[in-house]
Input
Amino acid sequence: MAKKIRRIGVMTSGGDSPGMNAAIRAVVRACAYYHTECIGFYRGYQGMIEGDYMEMNARSVQNIITRGGTILKSARSKEFLTKEGRQKAADNLKKAEVDAMILIGGDGTFRGGKIFNEEHHIPIIGVPGTIDNDINGTNYTIGFDTALNTVVEAIDKIRDTASSHNRLFFIEVMGRDAGFIALNSGIGAGAEEILIPEENLGLDRLLDSLERSRRSGKTSSIVVVSEGDKIGKNVFELAEYVKENLPDYDAKVTVLGHIQRGGSPSCFDRVLASRLCVRAVELLLDGQKNLMVGFVNNRVEACSLDQALKSKHKINKDLLRISDILST
Amino acid sequence: MAKKIRRIGVMTSGGDSPGMNAAIRAVVRACAYYHTECIGFYRGYQGMIEGDYMEMNARSVQNIITRGGTILKSARSKEFLTKEGRQKAADNLKKAEVDAMILIGGDGTFRGGKIFNEEHHIPIIGVPGTIDNDINGTNYTIGFDTALNTVVEAIDKIRDTASSHNRLFFIEVMGRDAGFIALNSGIGAGAEEILIPEENLGLDRLLDSLERSRRSGKTSSIVVVSEGDKIGKNVFELAEYVKENLPDYDAKVTVLGHIQRGGSPSCFDRVLASRLCVRAVELLLDGQKNLMVGFVNNRVEACSLDQALKSKHKINKDLLRISDILST
Amino acid sequence: MAKKIRRIGVMTSGGDSPGMNAAIRAVVRACAYYHTECIGFYRGYQGMIEGDYMEMNARSVQNIITRGGTILKSARSKEFLTKEGRQKAADNLKKAEVDAMILIGGDGTFRGGKIFNEEHHIPIIGVPGTIDNDINGTNYTIGFDTALNTVVEAIDKIRDTASSHNRLFFIEVMGRDAGFIALNSGIGAGAEEILIPEENLGLDRLLDSLERSRRSGKTSSIVVVSEGDKIGKNVFELAEYVKENLPDYDAKVTVLGHIQRGGSPSCFDRVLASRLCVRAVELLLDGQKNLMVGFVNNRVEACSLDQALKSKHKINKDLLRISDILST
Amino acid sequence: MAKKIRRIGVMTSGGDSPGMNAAIRAVVRACAYYHTECIGFYRGYQGMIEGDYMEMNARSVQNIITRGGTILKSARSKEFLTKEGRQKAADNLKKAEVDAMILIGGDGTFRGGKIFNEEHHIPIIGVPGTIDNDINGTNYTIGFDTALNTVVEAIDKIRDTASSHNRLFFIEVMGRDAGFIALNSGIGAGAEEILIPEENLGLDRLLDSLERSRRSGKTSSIVVVSEGDKIGKNVFELAEYVKENLPDYDAKVTVLGHIQRGGSPSCFDRVLASRLCVRAVELLLDGQKNLMVGFVNNRVEACSLDQALKSKHKINKDLLRISDILST
Output
């Protein structure tokens, strides 16, 4: 029979994302509501290894729902990749009388959690917190929606100056292995072309499209490029290539970088984080474990960590078609 | 057999919402892509009655995806409620050689469209554009997500001053018949209480909750109130009532009003508008009619206008429970 | 000879304004830089009376520069208006070994500080923190610039919906006795008319102007109204009056309210707060007292509290002329 | 005697800046108010050379006050650097019956205007529109304030993620020859260090400061770097150098790039543009010429183009001291 859960630990791990604070708040408040103790570990697995934590009550998370980043900090822990590191973490949880953990992060975080659970049998629930939206078992990860708004606002600003100068801009957005950010922000910003890791349309097609776009009377062109696009050139080489082949264009590059991880979370991300984390606490109190909570078909649903990890969340390739139609 | 569609009309009607321009752009660009002509009627049904329209091509919608409001204007037409008015509109469509209409608006708009089609047999596709999210047959209406962000940003600002002065704020948001905005923005803004038209929890419960909240050490309280809440008092009377019964509180009122309808649309609303309207054009070209396109379970889907109109989109009452837990 | 200053107290008082946290941070950091102790009193004069304070060091103000409101809270203290209240405050300062005070607030705050100094001889420097910009001896008060941006962004949103519906909007902004916010935000938002407390142009002129505006082909009209305008009607009565006299107009009202006090401060307000408060600390350490620091002709300058209090900062009436010209 | 001015031309030239549209609007509306004709040339001097312009009336500038960029487009014209190019421009102005020109741009624009006037005697007024704030004869250029807010908002977002990971960020901002943006945004964003073209503090000082900052318990560090800083390394080399010498730091780089030129202008920039351009029109109508309008000591003032061009606007080095004190 499952041990009664009296004390839940929570941490954030991997790349931070907007809404992680809303998630922490929801875990802490749900624990308070269900008269369960809650402690927060700093810097993800590293804080578990070092026993670096604080006790949290409903007031410790006051007003953090509005803030980007994570008050518990985040890190990637090399030590946790070792058996010894995980043993230390398990010892610390025991000492701190933690009965279960809620892990807020991406697939690296969940992979670590799965091994940890196999070795030390501490119940775990994963909450998908990453701007990349590349987690199986949920339509949206916490932070994705805010990142899209950040990217679209940035491109809107660049569009102002691109239109004023009849320029072509290459804009690199995050997404090393997944084109979710590029695809959605590209459609949202009205980009002329979108390059993603999942599809290599080739350089000729890009040149054709830009040439057509110019002839159709467009006063500016925006190409959104995923960090991990498969075209075989980085964004600066790409811009050089286009300048050489389409000398009429004054091509510029902007790499949006880490502004995409920050900022006050959107309402969508705050509500998503709130709903997922209340459910995470309730699942643990209900004796469940080794699940990830997700938002699927407009409902909160849980799947096994295995399922969440077995493959990547696939992009909707129909969005490429939509983008083509709309950049007419 | 369905008549071939060579020319599509588009209009926006009812209360305007952010993303209507993105929707117009998607209709126009999809028409251009499919070599179909497109004309835009001004001020909804009124422009159809007056024959007030412009021919639109891919360039007429340049850079409007970023803008709030609607370049085609919107209105509520009394004349269209009469048989004569609708006859004039039909005559004008005939004169302008319009084979089908795409109507962007709320349920009033669709009701008008249904009667119009019954009388004049012009194929119609409805696109749900309203900040209220109260349309059956779609999980999200165009403009809802942006309105939520606008409300949450406004409440975040009010929270700054509320916290600085240990104050209680009643904030009225839009939603005469539906609590979608109040419920989601209330959770997103971390409101202590949320009052919606669909549920009357009573004044005693409100006083209790505020009293408990104060005793638990909260430095400020926010109550989000739908325009159409069922508590039997308007927001100013409500604040007076609370002041009388909880004299420790310095209660203030803010009515957010029309800022909720404006602003540059969020990425979510831009992508939603783009996807729904490309589909709307494709459905017409495919010989379909009298449908509404919606976003259901993370997919674009169409339902009959009848279905969209037969009942209201219901709020998820579980969100009230989430709000209760999180305002602990 | 002036007593050596070893410990400085700081507080915020009156209506809060964006940038007060940046001001607190600058006081605390400047104290740390000059090896002077610093304590922060909560809720303005009330915290001095109750001895409610905390010791502050460079780390206590980490990351607050970005946040609206004031971490020291603000209040209007009735008790401080009495001799007994002020005596208690003086006793508490003595007990806490505070040698001088920096008061961040408006003219009410400074008036209190002047009497306090006359009775208890504790050196005081005032820092103008209010969104109203109505303080003599400075061109800009801390929070004014942010409030203008908040108002202009709100009116931009309302303009979206006003333009979509060809509507007239009356928008009430803060400024009970001073038209600074109305005048500057009105010009910034391209308002058709601006009503301020300092000038009563009469109702006939307003009607004329709106009528002219409509005839000139404007698709929407915005009238910005100061809370304290002198036209003898509140904003709702004004809208009614216009509706009766100009029935073609669909007039609506929005009262912006407390969103104007909140929000992350603009860069201007952060730099202003930083510069004024570093100077405030340096003046105290230099043996100066009973001054207000201000930003005059693009330089930080100090004037006596008497001078700051002897009259109101006057609006630049030329701005009304500019507004007239631009709403052509 | 000066020829009567019946028709004024306006153009925007050089790098675009937020508020240029507000400036165009003010020129056009002031012309309308004074019953003077107005035409707008596209793409700066290039449009003058090509005779590419449009007639503008009060309605042509409707609602553009809110938008970034410039509806008249901007460009840098090589042809205008030649005598022949300038002759063509003069011929076109004559043909279009333009009696005087208002030039919105930076010092390159004004230098061109000065030569043009010397050769062709067409009265000219310059309006300082550039984000760089590097123009003599004005405390603020149009667009500078908005750019500062854009930079500060971007750094606030990066601070979220920097704090979550205890990281060091190097952030490159615009300003090839002038440190205005770096200096003000650096103070506004609470940067730990600011590197500007006007001052080379050396690499040792930077390392010392970062080391001290880390020891004092700071959880993140931000270094703001002007494009044109004089430290002899670009921002990527700088980050590498610091990583080698301070291995405890996880240093990252973000180049903000062209987002700094775009965005809806701040209230300050809209009011500034409005006031300067009304004055520009009035000066021309008053028979004045070859002046630049500026905002000096809180007043609109004009200086000769010569004076505006004879030296650069100097940064206030006291701000470096303020930054040092506040990053304690």
In short: The first strand of chain B starts at residue 7 and ends at 12. The mean pLDDT of chain B is 94. The CA atoms of residues 174 and 258 of chain B lie 9 Å apart. The first helix of chain B runs from residue 20 to 33.
